[in-house]
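Example: Thiol-disulfide oxidoreductase DCC family protein.
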Amino acid sequence: MGGIILFDGVCNFCNSSVQFILKRDPKGYFKFASLQSETGKSLIKKYEINEDINSLVLIEEDTYFLKSNAVLRICIHLRGLWGIFSIFRFIPTPVRNSLYTIVAKNRYTWFGKRETCRIPSIEERQRFLD
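Written out as structure tokens, the predicted fold is:
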């Protein structure tokens, strides 16, 4: 089994990140669901994650990861040299997460917001959970 990535479906930066991951995950390790979807809401409830989550969420092996921990774990599975970013796991989590939080708080201002969640292409649909 692979991982499930929960993302903010109306955030342009988050949607671009999903596209980035899709292009570098040809084996289909990751599945995706927006935080706003029924699946996203259900998984947030199941894992008892704060409903006001302001982070990408990675669910792997019945455990969830947030913020920089989620990003670093995602990088390990991507094609190319992205796994090298796992070296940053040696930086204390509060330091990594402070940078993540700055981006998360400003993502709508810096990258914009959509009125609706992105609709995956026909080829991508099998990778998205309803």
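Residues 20 and 82 are 11 Å apart (CA to CA).
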